[in-house]
Structures are given as C-alpha cells and as structure tokens.
From TrEMBL:
One of its GO terms (molecular function) is pantetheine hydrolase activity. This is Vanin 3. The keyword Signal applies. The keyword Signal applies. SUPFAM superfamilies: Carbon-nitrogen hydrolase.
Length: 170
C-alpha cells in the first residue's frame, strides 16, 4: 500500500520545484499547528460536520499561510499531512473527511474546480497569493474485494486496470 504514496510525493515535489524553477532562489515555509480534532473519532460523523471541522482548521491555516507568503516572502508552503482533520480515526470514521483526489495524470487545478470541497478551500490561497502549496489530505478510492487483484474499480465499478506498480492505466 505504501507504494501508492511514493509517486504522489514525487509528483508533489516535482510540481513544487517546477513552479519555482524560474527563480534563482526561493523561500520555503513549513507550517504546523495544533490541529482542532473531532470530539469522537470512533463514531462516524456527517459530511457536514466533517466539513465544519476541516473549515475551522483551514481558517487557522489560512492566517498562517498568508503571513508566511506576505511577511516572509515564501514561494512554497508545506502544511502538515493530517493538519486539516487529524489522525486518530477508524476506517469507518475517517470516510466523511476524505475526497477523491484525481490521478496525477489528470490535468486538474483545484483552484478552478468548484466540485472539490476541501481541496477547493485551501489551494485558492496559493492561487490568490501566487505561491505553491503542499497540502496533505486523505484520499478515498474504491478497492476490489480480492486483495491479490491488480485492478481497481471506479465509483460505478467499471474496471480500471493498473500497471504492475499499482498505478492506474487510465
């Protein structure tokens, strides 16, 4: 399972490096805050309650990101991996906090996609202030019930073949 995280990290790093590649130097900021955690992580909450909590954390993040971009001149800002929703969940209770994150091969810009809830909330900070932002957010995807199966399925359970490295082929 950890194989799927490596390409996303590489893609994110490449995106950040490419976006400041024209500069001779750049300033990077790494931000961490005391995450506002949900009251009960064992019990699933509604999508609305999850969004409320995440928006509270995004509000904290927004202030720090604006400060780093404007006062410190940061070109790249990296936020904590679970800084929007926390980290102590069960498989069932984390689900309302997750979104479908498109494959890196998909030409997708969160700033221009109103269909994404959380991914749409934080990246516009980078769009409006002209900096790159590395934001960790959990992804949801439909898995096959057979663990040795080398295929994934989309939401309608259409077969999505994967390469031997586990990367979707379409």
């Amino acid at each position: 399972m950890s194989r799927s995280y490596f390409p996303k990290c590489v893609a994110l790093s490449a995106l950040l490096v490419l976006s400041v590649g024209a500069l001779d130097t750049f300033i990077a900021a790494v931000y961490e805050h005391a995450v506002i955690l949900p009251n009960r992580t064992e019990t699933p909450v509604s999508k609305e309650a999850a969004l409320l909590l995440m928006n509270n954390n995004i509000d904290v993040l927004e202030k720090a990101v604006k400060l780093a971009a404007k006062q410190q001149g940061a070109h790249i800002i990296v936020t904590p991996e679970d800084g929007i929703y926390g980290w102590v969940f069960t498989r069932e209770s984390i689900y309302p906090y997750l979104e479908d994150i498109p494959d890196p091969e998909v030409n997708w810009i969160p700033c221009r996609d109103p269909g994404s809830m959380v991914q749409h909330a934080a990246p516009p900070l980078g769009c409006s202030l002209s900096f790159s932002m590395g934001q960790g957010h959990g992804s949801q995807s439909t898995c096959c019930k057979y663990p040795q199966h080398q295929h994934a399925h989309d939401r309608e359970w259409t077969l999505c073949p994967r390469s031997s490295q586990g990367v979707p082929l379409r």
